[in-house]
Amino acid sequence: MQITKEMKMADAIHSNYLLLPVINRLEIQLGFQDKSIEKVCVEQNVDVEFFLTIINAFLGSDNKLSKQLQSHSVKEVVSYLLKTHSYYLERIIPEIENRINLLIQYSQLSKEEFLLVKNFFEEYEKELYAHIALEEEHVYPYILEIADSYHKKSLSQALENKINIYPITSYEKEHSDIEAKLFDLKNILIKYLPAPKDSHIRNRVLTELYTLEQDLSDHARIENMVLVPKITEMEAALLALKK
After folding, report:
1. Total-model pTM
2. How far apart are CA 193 and CA 104, in angstroms?
3. End of a domain among 19, 37, 68?
């Protein structure tokens, strides 16, 4: 289903409730009555075309949407991805951690099982935080520096060295490690833990982990299908300036 600017914002949410956190990240607040997406975006000072591109990219994975995202500025895409990081760190991970603590509390786990779940989640949490720190401290600043230099059509020696040593493609494999760890955590909860007193708690944990997994996948898709090819082209164009 393609979301258009003429649609009511409420209808877009009804079509897929998982859009709610995405809409919030784009700084759209609920309470918009029966207004269209275009009207809500105008009133809340949000670029309607970027809003539609992100929402439709979230709902589908075709190449056309990736090309639409590539038409937006690098700064705009990075800003959205940074808001996604904040959502993970401030909301999702703490909520999952609280639910896992409840699951442990209401499950009859041996000491080994208790430590398996606790340590595995803490390890995953640590890796996710490290991944986010890498992107925010190194990858995104590098991306913005490349875009800025590309538009200025100038390449410093320092940036040329960065391109040659750590081009954008060198960061691409980072997501697969995070995804594998999350899959392993789900597997432990599904296959190896004894039934808790309240199975609803485990189901809630798994539901949130699956939701996080999907969100991380969409996040990675935007980076790998939009930013990586766009920055790769810019890197090549900048290096060509020295030839």
Report:
1. 0.83
2. 10
3. 68
Q: What SS3 class is residue 1?
A: coil
| Interatomic CA distance for residues 56 and 59, integer angstroms | 5
Taken in order 5, 9, 15, 21, the sign of the CA dihedral is: positive
Task: Write the pLDDT tens digit of every residue in 42-73.
Answer: 999 999 988 988 888 777 655 555 667 777 88
Do 55 and 109 lie in a common domain?
Answer: no
Sign of CA dihedral 107, 112, 114, 120: negative
Question: Nearest CA to 93 among 58, 128, 131?
Answer: 128
Residue 58: name the closest of 11, 17, 7, 5 by CA. Answer: 17
pLDDT at 177: 67
With respect to residue 3, please indicate whether it lies within any of the assigned structural domains: no
Quick one: 115 and 235 in the same domain? yes
